[in-house]
């Protein structure tokens, strides 16, 4: 039987009201409860595919494996059905077990596959348990030092479970996740070792082998760039490295397409050492086929199983993140996650921004909200607005 305060939690989830949910949870901190359908708040939020609510509930101590549901659908089963891969990821990070089966003997990834949510399938099947990372933070055998300093375990794990494979996003993650940039060479080595392990172990996982190799390739490129930077302060060197990398990757070709990013990704495919694997052959045949899609979409497809949504939604011009919330206030065409992404693209965008203004003059979008741009260089002051 649920009390009034418990009911409020379920009502808040039903209405999708974050503030209401937080208030209800403050009144009733035990979040591991069930309603008359034998479902927990977390299961409801997961079924709705509501990432923010799922995170709030997890932060309040929701047990991702608590399941009283009559057909034994776990929160992860519901997440897989919802189609929101970020909800799947949040639950996995919180310790949701992917091997639990429901009453018809199906795992969460099998249910997701059944309803055609391939990205959820990929996220669940390719999830790397943190214990696999911890192995590299402990010294083994004759080694006196581990491959990675132990404090890196968390950020390294976070790095390898990300799903946005845009090289700029990978570099941004390496730049922002604690300690990664400071140990890029070690990170690169461990990623190579993990790639090799995936190929050589029984039950080899070519997808993961390719993903780890790809991440190591980006790390290697950053190592090369970093070696050429002259800045004295470590922090400046780190920022310069990221800027140079982004400038190289985002440089537009004569036709305006991202052909340098394409070349970078093709080179990575070329360097993948396991030439005989099926996945590589598929990638190469698509890359060399007639009218190939972008190398980024091929690489993303190879790693994630699907290229997100096939509607005409625009991704961040800098890092490829879905549903960017800001746009350039001048042309109102270029879209970004935030000021940082805009800044990293400005070197190239400033050359075309004005010409995009004319193209978009007929745009009916009037929702312009200026944001505080005090952190931007004077050149791009007031050039970012919310969508
Ligand atoms: Zn972005
Ligand atoms: Zn612009």
Radius of gyration: 23 Å
Each distinct ligand: zinc ion
Query: Which segments are poorly predicted (pLDDT under 50) over 5 or more consecutive residues?
Result: 362-376
H/E series: HHHHHHHHHHHHHHHHHEEHHEE
Strand order of the largest sheet: 2-1-4-3
Q: Could you tell me the mean pLDDT?
A: 89
Question: How does this structure look, described?
Answer:
With 387 residues, the protein is an all-alpha fold. It folds into three domains: 4-125, Alpha Horseshoe (Serine Threonine Protein Phosphatase 5, Tetratricopeptide repeat), CATH 1.25.40; 128-308, no CATH class; 326-386, no CATH class. Helices cover 52% and strands 3% of the residues. Strands 2-1-4-3 form a four-stranded antiparallel beta sheet. Strand 1 and strand 2 (335-336) form a beta hairpin. Helix 5 runs parallel beside helix 7 and helix 6 packs parallel to helix 8. It is globular. The two termini are 44 Å apart. The model is unreliable at 362-376 (pLDDT under 50). The structure holds zinc ion (2 copies).
Task: Give the topology, please.
Blueprint: H1 4-15, H2 18-27, H3 41-47, H4 51-59, H5 75-82, H6 85-93, H7 108-114, H8 118-125, H9 130-134, H10 153-160, H11 167-176, H12 184-200, H13 206-227, H14 234-250, H15 259-271, H16 278-287, H17 295-304, E1 326-328, E2 335-336, H18 339-349, H19 353-359, E3 369-370, E4 384-386
Helix pairs in contact: 1-2, 2-4, 3-4, 3-5, 4-6, 5-6, 5-7, 6-8, 7-8, 11-13, 11-14, 12-13, 13-14, 14-18, 16-17
Bound molecules: zinc ion (2 copies).
One zinc ion binds next to loops.
């Amino acid at each position: 039987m649920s009390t009034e305060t418990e009911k409020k939690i379920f009502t808040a989830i039903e209405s999708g009201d974050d503030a209401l949910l937080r208030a209800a949870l403050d009144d009733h901190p035990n979040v591991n409860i069930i309603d008359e359908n034998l479902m927990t708040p977390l299961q409801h939020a997961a079924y709705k595919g509501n990432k923010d609510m799922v995170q709030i509930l997890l932060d309040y101590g929701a047990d991702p494996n608590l399941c009283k549901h009559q057909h034994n659908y776990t929160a992860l089963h519901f997440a897989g059905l919802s189609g929101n891969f970020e909800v799947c990821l949040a639950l996995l990070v919180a310790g949701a077990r992917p091997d639990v089966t429901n009453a018809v003997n199906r795992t969460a990834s099998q249910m997701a596959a059944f309803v055609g949510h391939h990205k959820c399938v990929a996220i669940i099947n390719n999830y790397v348990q943190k214990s696999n990372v911890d192995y590299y933070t402990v010294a083994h055998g004759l080694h006196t030092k581990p491959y990675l300093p132990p404090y890196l375990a968390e950020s390294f794990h976070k790095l390898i479970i990300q799903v946005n494979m845009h090289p700029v996003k990978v570099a941004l993650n390496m730049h922002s996740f604690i300690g990664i940039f400071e140990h890029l060479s070690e990170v690169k080595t461990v990623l190579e070792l993990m790639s090799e392990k995936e190929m050589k172990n029984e039950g080899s996982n070519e997808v993961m082998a390719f993903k780890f190799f790809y991440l190591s390739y980006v790390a290697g490129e950053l190592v090369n760039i970093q070696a050429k930077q002259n800045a004295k302060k470590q922090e400046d060197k780190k920022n310069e490295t990221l800027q140079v990398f982004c400038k190289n990757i985002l440089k537009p070709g004569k036709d305006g397409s991202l052909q340098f990013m394409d070349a970078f990704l093709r080179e990575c495919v070329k360097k993948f050492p396991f030439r005989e694997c099926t996945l590589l052959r598929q990638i190469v045949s698509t890359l060399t086929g007639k009218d190939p899609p972008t190398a980024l979409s091929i690489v993303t497809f190879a790693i994630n199983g699907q290229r997100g949504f096939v509607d005409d939604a625009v991704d961040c011009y800098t890092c490829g993140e879905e549903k960017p919330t800001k746009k350039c206030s001048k042309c109102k065409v270029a879209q970004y996650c935030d000021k940082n992404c805009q800044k990293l693209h400005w070197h190239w965008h400033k050359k075309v921004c004005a010409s995009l203004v004319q193209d978009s003059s007929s745009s009916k979008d009037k929702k312009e909200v200026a944001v505080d741009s005090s952190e931007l260089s004077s050149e791009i002051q007031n050039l970012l607005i919310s969508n």
